[in-house]
Amino acid sequence: MMDVLPRTITNALSPLSRLREKGGICPTPLAYRRERRDAVPSRPRGFVLIVVLVVAAMLSLTAMSFVGLMSTENKAVHLRGEELEAQCLVGSAEASVQAMLDLSEDARQAAGGAYDNAAWFRGVLVLGEERSRHRGRFSVVSPRGPEDGSEGIRFGLADESARLNLAALPDWERRAPGAARAALMNLPGMTEAVADAILDWMDGDSSPRPFGAEADAYAGADVPYAPRNAVPGCVEELLLVKGVTRGRLFGADANHNYQIEPSEAPQGSSSDGPPWATLVTLHGARRNVNPAGKPRVNLNDDDLAKVHRELAGRIDETWARFIILYRQYGGRVATDAPSAGGGAGAASSTEPADVRLDFSVPAKVKLDSVLDLVDAWVALPARGPQPPARVPSPFANDPIQMADYLPKLLDETAVTAESVLRGQVNVNAAPREVLLGVPGLDEATVAQIVATRPSRGDTSVDPARRHPTWLLTEGLITLDTMKTALPWLTAGGDVYRAQLIGFFDDSRAVARTEVVIDATATPPRRVYWKDLSPWGPGFTRESLGGTSDQTDALATW
C-alpha cells in the first residue's frame, strides 16, 4: 500500500515533467508571475500628478460655486432685510401722516399744513444719520393738479372729498331722484349702460335699471357671480361691474407715478379725461365740528331750550333768538312781508331782542340749511291785547354782510346731529368732472368756480373760503342756487389719500404703498391700503429727497 501512493503521484507528475523537458508549456508559478510582469507595459510617471491636479481643480470649482452661492444668499438675505426695513419706513410715514391729521386745524397750519409740506413729508431721515452710509428715509407724495401751476408731485395729502363718493350715491338718489346717475354721467367716457350697471351693483334690489345689469347679466360668466347689492368694498371692485374696463378705471399709468410715460401710452384706452379711479372714492367725509374741534350745534334739535343754551357764547344772542322763533313759527321770505301801515290789527315790526322766548312752544319747522334764515321774517301770533308782530331776520341778503356772518354761523351751527358728514364734495378742490355732478351747479357755474378759486394749496388757510358759501358771497351763484347746492358741498375734508415710500440712499430696496387715512376717528385710522412695490419705486431717488455717495445716477434704482 505504501508503494502505491508514490507511484500514483509519480504517474500524475510524469506528464508535467515530460512537458517541461519538451519545451515548457506550463511554467512554475514563480516563473509565470515574472513573465506576466514583464509583459505589462509601464505607465507614464506623471499620471498620478495629472489626476491630483484634476481633482484639485474640481474641488476648487466646487468651492468657488459654494462661495458664489453663499455670497448670493448673503446678498439676498441682506436685500430681504432691507426690504423689511423699507416696509418699516413706510410704517413711519403712515405714523407721520396720522400725527399731522391728529393736530388741530390751527396747529396743523402752524406746522406747514398737510397739502404741500416738504419739511414734514420729503425725504425724512429715519434710519442712520446724515454722515452714515446706510440711511433710510420716507416720503409722502400726491399728484399736483392743473390749478397748482405745475405738474409732477407734491409732498402732502390729497383730500378724498375732492372725489365723488360712491358710498353716498344711494343717499343722493333718495334725496334727489336721478342725482346719482347724473353724477356718474359726468365722468369721462361714462355711458348710460355702465352708469346704470354701477348703480345696480350698489342698490339693494334685484330689478335692473333701464340700461343696467343685475344677477342675470353675470350668471353667464366663466365663473358666475352676482352683484354685491351694497357699497363696494374698494374701487377695484368696479372691475366686476358689467362694462367697466381696466383702461377706463385706472388709465394708462401702469406704475402709479401720476404720469404717462412713453412705454405706457399705448396701453391706455382713455385719452379724453382722467381715469375714473382718480375721480371716485368710497371714503370722503368731514367731521361736524367747528375749527376748534368742538361739535357744532344742531339747529334742528327738538329741544329748543337746549339749542338756545348751546348757542350762547357761540353766536350773537340776536341770531340765536331769531333761530328759535323761526323753528317755532316758521319763516317767510322777505318778498312776502306785509307793507307798512296796514290799518288796525296789522303786524308791527319787532326786533328779536324785544321778543320774550317761550320754550313751551314746540318746534314747528326744520331748517334745510342755515341759508333758510337769510332774508326771512317770522310772523308772531297775537298774544292777548298785543297785536301780531313781524320779526325780521338779522341775516340780510347782502354779499358784504353775508361774507361776515355766514362763516361765523356755519362754523358753529349745523342742521344735522350726525357727527360725520359723508358724501359732500369739496368745492375748493374737486375737479370739473366731479363738480358737474353736484345738483344745482351747471357747466357755466362750474367753469366760473374752477377759474375763480385759487390753487388748492391756499384754500385750506383762507378763512373766507372755509365754507362753500363763498360762491354766494363772491357773486358766482344766487341765493336760491346756493340753497340747492349747499347740502351737497363742503370746503374741506378729514379723509386723505397719499403714497408712502420707504427707501435708502445706498440700496435699491424700496417699499411703496397707497393709503387712505380717516381722521374723522380719533386717533386717525387707515381705511385703505394698496401695495405698489411690485411696480417699482415710481419716482427717482433725487425727486423723493434722497442723497447718494455713489457717482452713478440712481434714477433707475
Overview of the molecule:
- The protein is an alpha+beta fold and 557 residues long.
- Among the domains are: 4-39, no CATH class; 72-160 and 494-535; 297-409, no CATH class.
- It is 35% helix and 13% strand.
- It has 18 helices and 19 strands.
- The chain has helices at residues 4-22, 29-39, 47-101, 105-110, 118-121, 169-175, 179-185, 192-202, 215-218, 246-250, 304-311, 317-329, 399-412, 432-435, 443-452, 456-459, 470-473, 479-485, and strands at residues 124-127, 136-143, 153-154, 158-159, 164-165, 280-281, 285-287, 297-298, 332-333, 348-349, 376-380, 389-392, 413-414, 420-422, 425-426, 489-490, 495-504, 510-518, 525-531.
- The strands form six sheets. Strands 1, 2, 3, 4, 17, 18 and 19 form a seven-stranded antiparallel beta sheet that branches.
- A hairpin with an 8-residue loop joins strand 11 (376-380) and strand 12.
- Helix 11 (304-311) runs antiparallel to helix 12 (317-329).
- The termini are far apart.
- Mean pLDDT is 85; it is low at 339-345 and 551-555.
